[in-house]
Amino acid sequence: MTGATVENRTTLAHTLALAVRSGDVRAVSRLITLLEKGHPAGAEGLRLLSSDGRPRTIIGVTGYPGAGKSTLINALVAAYRARGMKVAVLAIDVSSAVTGGAILGDRIRMQEHALDSCVYIRSMATRGHQGGLARTTEQAGRVLVAAGYDVVLIETVGVGQNEVDVVKIAPTVVVVVAPGLGDEVQAMKAGLLEVADIVVVNKGDHPGAESTVRDLREWCPIVISTVAMTGKGLPELLEAITAHQQDRNDRKGCSIGL
Ligand SMILES: Nc1nc2c(ncn2[C@@H]2O[C@H](COP(=O)(O)OP(=O)(O)O)[C@@H](O)[C@H]2O)c(=O)[nH]1
Ligand SMILES: [Mg+2]
């Protein structure tokens, strides 16, 4: 690599890091894109960023497709915004085979926040790379924290490697399930439920929601019933998230953040 290239790279990294720290949304997007591409300026820019030490909230939201993760995240964004917090959403697109048109759906559903300059929404494609989710998403999380977002919500589909990866990235993991699981609870115990700090039984307006909550309470200490579309159960979920973070902070003796 020539001296001039290194100099350009360093200049770019410094410029972006400075802009990210001032909360510049375009710089945030550019830096995350460089990180996704594995561009050296991305890593260099990231190194120049540091958290200001304020506690930040990173929440992983996972569960099978259709359980209502995106709708719930939309409601959480609104709730955190109502508290005056800046919120970012990273929607992970594992592969088109698994998610179908889900990401487009997410985008459309989250449009109500599109004009809010304190909300940042981005889809990230892992393009089938195992472990890619963990690395780039964790890096994107650090960029967002440095840019001053108080809450980062990460939506992943609860299949395979994602379950493991989301735990690495997010100190608080919310697993969203829909009512009427029956025998599926047994299968979920081995994977999804194991990574859950909080289990949400969404679609509380559907028949069978109560019995699903009862079943799950046998396996998980914190089970909350919600109707994401109306916001029912949202205050309880917010409280559970805050309590879990508090609990973690107390145990670790340090703030959650990156
Ligand atoms: N009846 C009902 N439908 C819901 C609820 N939450 C989400 N949905 C619907 O369930 C479908 C899947 O929701 P979505 O948020 O895209 O699920 P995701 O795949 O887990 O992100 C959509 O048609 C939503 O409108 C709820 O609480 N009650
Ligand atoms: Mg979704």
Descriptive overview:
With about 260 residues, this protein is of the alpha/beta class. Helices cover about 50% and strands about 15% of the residues. It contains 12 helices and 7 strands. The chain has helices spanning about 5-20, 25-35, 40-50, 70-80, 95-100, 100-110, 130-145, 160-170, 185-190, 190-195, 210-215, 235-250; strands at about 55-60, 85-95, 120-125, 150-155, 170-175, 200, 225. Helix 11 links the parallel strand 6 and strand 7. Helix 1 (about 5-20) crosses helix 3 and helix 2 (about 25-35) crosses helix 3. It starts with a helix and ends in a 6-residue tail after the last helix. Magnesium ion (MG) binds next to helix 4 and helix 6.
Radius of gyration from the CA trace? 19 Å
Helix content: 40-55%
- Give the beta-strand count: 7
- Given as residue ranges, the uncertain stretches (5+ residues, pLDDT < 50) are 96-102, 253-258
Structural class: alpha/beta
Net shape: elongated
In short, what is this structure?
The chain is of the alpha/beta class and 258 residues long.
Any chance you could write out the topology, listing elements then pairs?
Elements: H1 3-21, H2 25-37, H3 40-48, E1 57-62, H4 69-82, E2 87-93, H5 96-99, H6 102-109, E3 119-125, H7 132-146, E4 151-155, H8 161-169, E5 172-177, H9 184-190, H10 192-195, E6 198-201, H11 209-217, E7 223-225, H12 234-252
Parallel strand pairs: 1-4, 1-5, 2-3, 2-4, 5-6, 6-7
Helix pairs in contact: 1-2, 1-3, 2-3, 2-7, 7-8
The chain binds guanosine-5'-diphosphate and magnesium ion (MG).
